[in-house]
UniProtKB/TrEMBL annotation:
<keyword id="KW-0325">Glycoprotein</keyword>
<dbReference type="InterPro" id="IPR018498">
    <property type="entry name" value="Peripherin/rom-1_CS"/>
</dbReference>
<dbReference type="GO" id="GO:0005886">
    <property type="term" value="C:plasma membrane"/>
</dbReference>
<protein>
    <recommendedName>
        <fullName>Peripherin-2</fullName>
    </recommendedName>
</protein>
<dbReference type="InterPro" id="IPR042026">
    <property type="entry name" value="Peripherin_LEL"/>
</dbReference>
<feature type="transmembrane region" description="Helical">
    <location>
        <begin position="101"/>
        <end position="130"/>
    </location>
</feature>
<dbReference type="InterPro" id="IPR008952">
    <property type="entry name" value="Tetraspanin_EC2_sf"/>
</dbReference>
<feature type="transmembrane region" description="Helical">
    <location>
        <begin position="20"/>
        <end position="41"/>
    </location>
</feature>
<keyword id="KW-1133">Transmembrane helix</keyword>
<keyword id="KW-0812">Transmembrane</keyword>
<keyword id="KW-1015">Disulfide bond</keyword>
<dbReference type="GO" id="GO:0007601">
    <property type="term" value="P:visual perception"/>
</dbReference>
<comment type="similarity">
    <text>Belongs to the PRPH2/ROM1 family.</text>
</comment>
<dbReference type="InterPro" id="IPR000830">
    <property type="entry name" value="Peripherin/rom-1"/>
</dbReference>
<dbReference type="GO" id="GO:0007155">
    <property type="term" value="P:cell adhesion"/>
</dbReference>
<feature type="transmembrane region" description="Helical">
    <location>
        <begin position="254"/>
        <end position="275"/>
    </location>
</feature>
<dbReference type="InterPro" id="IPR018499">
    <property type="entry name" value="Tetraspanin/Peripherin"/>
</dbReference>
Amino acid sequence: MPFMPVKFNLQKRVKLAQGLWMIYWLSVIVGILIFSLGIFFKIELRKRSEMMDNNESHLVPNLLILVGLLACGVSAFGGKVCHDSLDPVKFAKWKPMLKPYLLLCCGFNALMLLTVLLCFLMQFAVYLTLAEGLKNSIKFYKDTDTPGRCFMKRTLDMTQIEFRCCGNNNFRDWFEVQWISNRYLDMSNDLVKDRVLSNVEGKYLMDSVPFSCCNPGSPRPCIQHHLTNNSAHYDYDHRIEELNIWTRGCREALFSYFSNMMNSIGMLIIATIILESADMAGLKYLTTALETMEDPENPECESEGWLLEKSVKETFSEMLAKMKTLGASNQVEGGDAAEAAT
């Protein structure tokens, strides 16, 4: 007995074909959107590549681009089939391709499910890459004369301004590195010399942050130097006063940006899987309804459509039997080949 059978007349078949045609072309638009998001995600990773120590993975955006292209092609083909389904002559040329097409759709849904899982699972890899990359970016901030790091200062400054963040974990990360190049330090000055000599590694450390950490929304002029020295500023206590620099770390800000993007893309692909599944079910009903017409030459006659020709249990049993037969035949062929070789 067929699984989930439905009776169809001409009017229902026409409505189903028209509805499916619209859904398929909606899927094409969604495919274009996924493709565009994949390109955008790839560009964003390229832009932040220095912040990730050039170790970022492009697996997810590449998969998104592939999924978007496949969604457009698969859905456009389905839309064409639905458009021609009510014309017996045109539908006849598509009929042999429908079974492989539905199998292709199942494989495509599996690929989209894999992409969704990667959208959620790869966020941890993004977090670790950002942690290491930002740590090195802060360390190389001063190396404006070093080949390969010339634009690190500009990139990090623009990142802190754009994402309203400061440092890796927070602004105190700048206290642990020398972020001013020796080129701009007056080594003849006793204060500078004492500060350098007092450090074990010979670094010029200070409780200051770059200008890009300043919060322009603060009513007080930016205090970016001597942040922990209360006597250096009038009416100032760094322990209780709200600092007029960004207190959020760039790792948190960038991770939040990328994770929100990946979560949104993941939810869009889940919606696409549901949409494609509805397309597959509708197309199966439409093709079976057209195949079971009592009088194919009379378009007004009734027919019956279904999702599966047999029950779910019988279908799975049949599939398992076919797989076992295929496995047994492969073993026999392998044994015959071994005997022939000896």
